[in-house]
């Protein structure tokens, strides 16, 4: 079977399509110095830096609007509620959801996946199957493992090839038999940067009668996402990876599915009325938003959406694609360096190992040169096992990174090899 990637061909933009110096001026932390060197921040897959507009939006809430939402009739509560719900509306437009009721504020992608596992998973029966991929973050593995243990279901895994691309013939085979109820896939691998063909994989899952959750944490910062076009039943992402605050994220779910699910947590704001005899639960999305939320975080996430919406996301994608290509070529030219993950479709990540040197040692030397990368298994130990390695050094890029920073990265890797080799 031949399956095409759902990512459109790269558009040709001029080098000036994204004004990187202007973008960099929006992020105050990039002016910091580390160990006497200009900061080169290449750990964006873990968390991105924040523009002034996001910092100001969260600060403004605490300075001028601080109050609980949805409950008070006083001015501050009404202002805070309006700002919070305006943010939800902005996010709806950003990912092209049909309704704001389909957007649930959560702490991040991890909580979103756990919410779906706990609610959608309640209908699983012994012998049912859940399909995930060999590329998943632990947050998209462990909840399903626990669910399978609880419901006597079976976890199936889509394998990958040596490039870090999923084997789609194997995926289609796993869907046969009529037992698969849930498919959970990453849109972009945090460990390798592989862009998975999730639109086509979702269509195949639906034909097999399965519901689909997409982990979009690594996709939303790097490309335009249209949840209606993807047709996923659930799409999850985190604010802190897309230039927003930590501790806030979004679970998108189709309204008809969300309405059929039991509550995830109980308490304030997820109820309409409570007596000792019976509780009537609130309407969407509030029935899944128990307790006081991260109000400042939600408002800040709305500001992050505003920031990205003012940019040409095709130009952002092309710029980051060029950064990945430049870093890959330059690192491959360094003796002893091997790139892990060479998929034809990649976004924002270059993972590598250096012969006879542990990635943690590489990361320590790079930090002494002011270069921030991530080293370790990246919460993707099965991916590391597939390549027969314990860990990688991972450089991950954002819209504010430059070719000059890649040159610094490569010089620092050479420095590490000289010191440690």
Question: Roughly what fraction of the amino acids lie in strands?
Answer: 15-25%
As residue ranges, the low-confidence spans are 1-16
Count of the separate structural domains: 2
| Terminal Cα span | 46 Å
CATH architecture of the largest domain: 3-Layer(aba) Sandwich
The neighbouring-strand order within the major sheet is 4-10-9-8-7-5-6
Shape: globular
SS-based class? alpha/beta
What value does the average pLDDT take? 94
What's the number of helices? 14
Most strands sheet: 7 strands, mixed
Supply the CATH class of the largest domain: Alpha Beta
Output the CATH topology of the largest domain: Aspartate Aminotransferase, domain 2
Give me the count of strands. Answer: 17
> How helical, in percent, are the residues?
25-40%
- As a whole number of angstroms, the C-alpha radius of gyration is 22 Å
Looking at CATH, the homologous superfamily of the largest domain is Type I PLP-dependent aspartate aminotransferase-like (Major domain)
Annotate the secondary structure layout.
Blueprint: H1 20-25, E1 33-34, E2 37-38, E3 40-41, H2 52-65, H3 75-95, E4 103-106, H4 109-119, E5 129-133, H5 142-151, E6 154-158, H6 168-175, E7 180-186, H7 198-207, E8 211-215, H8 227-230, E9 234-238, E10 249-253, H9 255-258, E11 271-274, E12 279-281, H10 295-309, H11 313-332, E13 337-340, E14 349-354, H12 359-368, E15 371-372, E16 374-376, H13 381-386, E17 392-396, H14 403-420
Parallel strand pairs: 3-15, 5-6, 5-7, 7-8, 8-9
Antiparallel strand pairs: 1-2, 4-10, 9-10, 11-12, 13-14, 14-17, 16-17
């Amino acid at each position: 079977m031949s399956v095409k990637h759902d990512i459109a061909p790269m558009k040709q933009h001029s080098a000036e399509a994204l004004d990187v110096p202007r973008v960099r001026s929006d992020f105050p932390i990039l002016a910091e110095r580390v160990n006497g060197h200009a900061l080169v921040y290449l750990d964006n897959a873990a968390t991105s830096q924040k523009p002034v507009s996001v910092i100001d939006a969260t600060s403004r809430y605490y300075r001028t609007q601080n109050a609980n939402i949805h409950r008070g009739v006083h001015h501050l509560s009404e202002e805070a509620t309006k700002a919070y719900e305006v943010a939800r509306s902005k996010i709806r437009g950003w990912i092209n959801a049909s309704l704001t009721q389909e957007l649930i504020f959560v702490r991040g992608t991890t909580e979103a996946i756990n919410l779906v596992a706990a609610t959608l998973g309640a209908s699983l029966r012994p012998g049912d199957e859940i399909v995930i991929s060999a590329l998943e973050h632990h947050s998209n593995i462990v909840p399903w493992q626990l669910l399978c243990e609880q419901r006597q279901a079976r976890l199936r895994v889509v394998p990958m090839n040596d490039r870090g691309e999923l084997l789609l013939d194997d995926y289609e085979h796993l869907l046969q038999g009529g037992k698969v109820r849930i498919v959970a896939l990453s849109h972009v691998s945090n460990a390798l940067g592989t862009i998975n063909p999730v639109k086509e994989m979702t269509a195949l899952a639906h034909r097999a009668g399965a519901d689909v959750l997409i982990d979009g944490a690594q996709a939303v910062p790097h490309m335009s996402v249209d949840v209606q076009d993807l047709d996923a039943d659930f799409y999850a992402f985190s604010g802190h990876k897309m230039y927003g605050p930590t501790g806030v994220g979004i679970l998108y779910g189709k309204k008809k599915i969300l309405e059929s699910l039991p509550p995830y947590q109980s308490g304030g704001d997820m109820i309409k009325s409570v007596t000792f005899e019976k509780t009537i639960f609130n309407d969407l999305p509030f029935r899944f938003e128990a307790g006081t939320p991260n109000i400042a975080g939600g408002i800040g996430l709305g500001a992050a959406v505003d920031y990205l919406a003012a940019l040409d996301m095709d130009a952002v994608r092309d710029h980051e694609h060029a950064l990945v290509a430049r870093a890959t070529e330059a690192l491959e030219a360094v003796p002893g360096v091997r790139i892990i993950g060479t998929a034809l479709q990649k976004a924002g990540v270059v993972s590598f190992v250096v012969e006879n040197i542990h990635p943690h040692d590489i990361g320590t030397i790079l930090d002494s040169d002011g270069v921030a990368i991530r080293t370790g298994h990246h919460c993707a130990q099965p991916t590391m096992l597939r390549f027969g390695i314990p860990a990688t050094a991972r450089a991950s890029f954002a819209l504010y990174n430059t070719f000059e920073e890649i040159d610094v990265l490569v010089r620092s890797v050479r420095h590490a090899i000289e010191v440690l080799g």
